[in-house]
Amino acid sequence: MEEPLAKLQQAFPLERIQIRDGLCVRPLEDQDFAGMVELLAGDPDMSWSRKPWGPSNIRHLLDHRLSHYSLYGFGPYAVMLDDRFVGMAGAQVFDRERQSVELLAYISKDQWGQGLASEVLSWATARITDMTDQSSIFATTRPDNARAHRMVERLGFRQTGLDQEHYGHEALTWEMEIERD
User: Fold this and answer.
1) Which of 1, 34, 18, 48 is nearest to 123 (CA)?
2) What does the pLDDT look like over 110-145, one tens digit per residue?
3) Is 106 within 8 Å of 45 (Cβ atoms)?
4) CATH number of the domain that 55 lies in?
5) Angle at which helices 116-131 and 146-155 cross, to 10°
6) How many domains does the chain have?
7) Structural domain span for residue 137
8) Which residues are in the N-acetyltransferase domain (predicted)?
9) What is the Cα 168 distance to its own chain's centre?
10) Is the Cβ–Cβ distance between 40 and 46 less than 8 Å?
């Protein structure tokens, strides 16, 4: 995955990037733990299992994201709205053998319905399309998350199947094929 990986690292450098006035992404940091706890803890809507997460689950998630940076040189970002941590979103390796990439977003519930996740994932999709040779992009959603299904469909994804063991949970898989000249 060396050449595709290098292009993904260029598309998603580990630095702060302004998407628009008031909205930026930056690499997650260990000090984001408190913001992630505020965002995710105790709310079953914010976990894949639909069981409330506690600090240990969230610590594991943050460590997983930080290790992705070490392994691949890119990964999901902290999403900052007016300098406030409101979630994480971006791209990560989906299947190393197939050299594929997946989009993801965890956005604060107070931002749901405001288009923030769509905006950040549209930005990420454009970077993958414009700066890499990826032939497709993947996404996964919980089977019961109709809001996420509509969002990925609006972004151009089509449902491709059901994964019984996506990080230990059932997930719908989605794919967006990228047309190349």
Assistant:
1) 18
2) 999 999 999 999 999 999 999 999 999 999 998 999
3) no
4) 3.40.630.30
5) 40
6) 1
7) 2-177
8) 23-179
9) 17
10) yes
